[in-house]
Amino acid sequence: MRRDSRLSGVLHVLLHMAEFDGSVTSERLAALMNTNPVVVRRLMGGLRDLGLVASEKGHGGGWTLVCDLDRVTLYDVYVALGSPGIFAMGHRSEEPACLVEKAVNGALGSAFEDAERLLLARFSDVTLGHLSADFHARMAASGPCAQEAHPDVA
Question: Where are the transmembrane segments (predicted)?
Answer without folding.
Answer: none
